[in-house]
Amino acid sequence: MAGLRMTVGVLAVLGALLDRPDTELYGLEIVRASGLEPGTIYPILQRLRGAGWVSDRWEDPEPGRTEGRPSRRYYRLTVEGRARAVHVLQHGRDRSGLSRLLARPRFPAIPTTEVGPA
């Protein structure tokens, strides 16, 4: 863990990857799941990869060509990365209340109006 700062952004990316731990996710999926901007997640993913927490691979170019898009780079937590991410997220939430930031509601609350007796 030396050299890997646990910022809110790093924790958000780890949380996104842990939401679907057995699935490879490409960048836009991580952007959507984390709520962060693409320019934020890619440097984080590179740091996580450099630390051995995340593995990556490029998809075969054919699906992208067929769909008229660039090839996707897929990311997933390594076995070690998954164990460390679980530990760090739990420790971070216990220590600093990050659960409020990372566990935001998937759907916004719908305001309700209480109707009292007529």
Topology:
Blueprint: H1 8-19, E1 25-26, H2 27-34, H3 38-50, E2 54-58, H4 61-67, E3 73-77, H5 79-96, H6 99-102
Provide a descriptive summary of the structure in words.
There is one protein chain. With 118 residues, this protein is mainly alpha-helical. It is built from 6 helices and 3 strands. Strands 1-3-2 form a 3-stranded antiparallel sheet.
Number of domains: 1
Shape: globular
Global structural class: mainly alpha
For the biggest β-sheet, the strand order reads 1-3-2
**Second rung of CATH, namely the architecture:** Orthogonal Bundle
| Annotated CATH topology | Arc Repressor Mutant, subunit A
- Strand tally is 3
N-to-C series of helices and strands? HEHHEHEHH
The stretches of 5 or more residues where confidence is low (pLDDT under 50) are: 105-112
Classified by CATH, the class is: Mainly Alpha
CATH superfamily: Winged helix-like DNA-binding domain superfamily/Winged helix DNA-binding domain
For the largest beta-sheet, the strand count, sense and barrel status come to:
3 strands, antiparallel
* Number of alpha- plus pi-helical segments: 6
Q: How would you state the average pLDDT, rounded?
A: 83
**Radius of gyration over all CA atoms, rounded:** 18 Å
Report the span from N to C terminus.
62 Å
- Quote the beta fraction: 5-15%
Question: Share of helix among residues?
Answer: 40-55%
